[in-house]
Amino acid sequence: RCKELKYGKDLPQISIIFIFVNEALSVILRSVHSAVNHTPAPLLKEIILVDDNSDEEELKAPLEEYVNKRYPGLVKVVRNQKREGLIRARIEGWKAATGQVTGFFDAHVEFTAGWAEPVLSRIQENRKRVILPSIDNIKQDNFEVQRYENSAHGYSWELWCMYISPPKDWWDAGDPSLPIRTPAMIGCSFVVNRKFFGEIGLLDPGMDVYGGENIELGIKVWLCGGSMEVLPCSRVAHIERKKKPYNNNIGFYTKRNALRVAEVWMDDYKWHVYIAWNLPLENPGIDIGDVSERKALRKSLKCKNFQWYLDHVYPEMRRYNNTIAYGELRNNKAKDVCLDQGPQENHTAILYPCHGWGPQLARYTREGFLHLGALGTTTLLPDTRCLVDNGKSRFPQLLDCDKVKSSLHKRWNFIQNGAILNKGTGRCLEVENRGMAGIDLILRSCTGQRWTIKNFIK
User: What start-end ranges are recorded for coiled-coil regions in this protein (predicted)?
Assistant: First the structure.
């Protein structure tokens, strides 16, 4: 289908922006050659290489000499005086660009012939579209290209991005060449009208390194009058690197950046991000910096609310508004261990030394359900399981809540620093110390043991 499509002659010109830090020179040049070879010359305004303060000598004079000789006047090199991180480095690339359209890419990609025309055509029709070429994979060891299935890009409540199934109306149309509506972007490549990108506040310069900015852009574009789509007819392959230059604690940066997104864009749903990272709502212990400018931007653009976005753009995202308490659950008779989901296949909760990560994220709901494990993502993937007393076993089961027939066997009475009592059986969740043999999590007649959960929502 893609080969049959025809595009206009007067498409806008694109500035292609690559960001690199300590990348192999050969890989950067491969990306540049690929861009030049597979983008029609009349459409390619320029290529901008942003060096985010690399240390490697070959990325200094040798890189500039090569591109100036091979592509005189076509390639600009922008050097950051200190390492800014991917987000702010992309903003520097945008400032240097002069094309009507800007394309942002990692510096380890390969363009497929015919990638540019469908993208530029969609932006020409509507300048408020952010376009994502479909991503294929290049294997790092042998540079073999592996085609990925057509997909949209979603994310979890921690704001980690992931591939998701295209929306139902795309499947129903039965035409695999059609654009795919997407809630957000994976982040390694996106194309946007240069002026429109400036109008909606670019990426958030208050974020550090990377992680979360790709979700912020998706939410913001949809809420503030634009749209985001993946184009199956435009394909750009990306090397999945094993060693990443910014990788010193990317989890920390993503967490901090995610909280900025939550505070600016998510309204009453911002608590989902705090719950997902198992952080208290008050004083989470992370300085997210000043978000007043981003809030003012949202106001000035007269953007919609986050509820609209969940209903219309990301309806498959699971919602957890019924949460009243979350975090690690500890028993007064065993202070150093926490309730834990244990090995998935065993379907029973266990006690395990406390670490506060996903397997120990307990969540107590208004209905009296006690869920255990990381928050779920979309309705097409399994949800967090819940604790059940089936009345027979002395061990608590961990099951898919929707499949448990007896409502009462999955409901628990619990108040902070009180017992956890099953409404169906009257038994309590308790710990049994077996000396050298360890500690068991069991169900039995209540003996007055007390549990505390890390965070209660007032």
Answer: none
